[in-house]
Amino acid sequence: MTPRTLRSQLALWYGGFVCAILLVFGGLLYGVLARNLYRGVDQKLLALAQVVAESSVRNFLRPGYNNFSQLLEDFFGVPAAGQFIRVLDPSGNVGSRSENLLRRNIPVSRATVGRALHGEMVYETYDKGGPPLRVLTYPVVVRGRVRNIVQVATSLAPAMEALQQVLWVLVVGSPAVLCLALLGGWLLAGRALKPLDQVVDALRSLDADTLSDRIPDGSGTEEVQDLSRNINALLARLSDAFRRVREFTADASHELRTPLTVLRGEAEVALRHPRTVEEYQAVLASALEEIHRMGRIVEDLLLLAKGDLGEIRIEKAPLELARFLDDLSSQASVLAEARGLAFTAAGGPPATVLADPLRLRQLFWNLLDNAVKYTPEGGAVYLSHARAGDGWIRVTVKDTGVGIPPEHQERIFERFYRVDKHRARAQGGSGLGLAICKWIVEAHGGRIEVRSTPGRGSSFLVYLPEAEPGRPE
Ligand code: ADP
Description:
By secondary structure, the chain is α+β, with helices and mostly antiparallel strands. The protein folds into three domains: 6-161, Beta-Lactamase, CATH 3.30.450; 222-309, Signal transduction histidine kinase, dimerisation/phosphotransfer (DHp) domain (Helix Hairpins), CATH 1.10.287.130; 317-465, 2-Layer Sandwich (Heat Shock Protein 90). It is built from twelve helices and twelve strands. It has helices spanning 6-58, 68-76, 100-103, 110-117, 157-204, 222-272, 277-309, 321-338, 357-373, 406-409, 421-426, 433-443; strands spanning 83-88, 94-97, 122-126, 133-142, 145-155, 317-320, 342-347, 352-355, 380-389, 392-399, 447-453, 457-465. The strands form three sheets. The chain has a five-stranded antiparallel sheet with strand order 2-1-5-4-3, with helices on both faces. A five-stranded mixed sheet has the order 7-9-10-12-11. The longest helix has 53 residues, at 6-58. The structure holds adenosine-5'-diphosphate (ADP). Residues 370-371, 374, 399, 401-404, 412, 417-420, 424, 429-435, 458 line the site of adenosine-5'-diphosphate (ADP).
């Protein structure tokens, strides 16, 4: 079962890692130590055998000689107790032997003697009756012939005891080290995760009303700071989105309330006294105007809401842009001239775009309508298109009207956003036109930009991807 907290998981990982290191290190240590100890025993036996062999040729051929202790003390300078030594003749009969072999008997193996007679040194471990012995059978070769066989042996008990002590330290010490590692891992993980806890605490206190608060991002490691920064960026986007939703709801209710107030006021005034037919007609005509206005707002809102939900299908088909804009120009010129404005359709190269003609018409009509609305009498409106490179076609709707101050330019594509609310409403605008334009352009894979100088006019640039000639869609 995996522990649920990151802290315990980290501590366990850490403990597991230390445990693996301990196992590998302990195994290696034990292996190398055992190898060196046993090798040391073998080397000692070889040195001893060589000394005895040297002497056996000269001194110990006499059967019954057993003063090995004196010999070894003479040679090594210290008493060499605990070594078993005997000299055999080529038939395997025991000649001289050290005193301790009188007490412990090591049987002579025929096979070993046979191998020694072929000039081979044989190491064996003998572990019957008492502590294990390491035995070296060493041939004494004189003038190419095996003259004697020297057998030296020593107890493996000291080496085994040393190894056992190391094993004991490892077996008892490892769990203790492991416990310390787990505790250390737990403490370290707690320390490392503390800044994360602070972030979580700060997040816990946030709700829809405190979205503008930010969590501190100055403390902790770089990763935690990065996390805090990213959370803050997310909070900023969320609080912006919340603000827009709130503004949108307020704006939408306000937009609908105004015509309703007008309707109610007119109806109440009309009903105060009996009126003539003409007066009632005038009231009804005004009411109808307000109803139209509300209807337009509701339809626009519905269109944007469905667009957001992806419920509107854009029926794209190849569209000859020059011809399409030509048709639009003739209607726009009527509109412009009625308002005392000059209208110029500058035209452009033949180009095809993949578009829904109804939506595209709505888009450019909104832009042309705005250009006419926000340009005082005597001004001019232009419509043109051109290639903008990288496969883009740019359609420009330009006017010499009131212009848009720079601080408003970014926001005019937001829903219900208007630079001058009173003037725009008086001109019949609801502030949804450009939001719809933006949605239509983006649904066609394009983008819309505005360039404007207050008092001198505005240009709306619509970029649409040009359809590749002959490309099937
Ligand atoms: P509206 O229905 O109010 O015209 P839009 O979404 O079409 O709403 O436009 C948003 C705001 O952008 C307008 O209220 C107006 O202030 C500004 N605007 C749009 N087009 C122009 C233009 N051609 N010249 C100056 N201002 C413009």
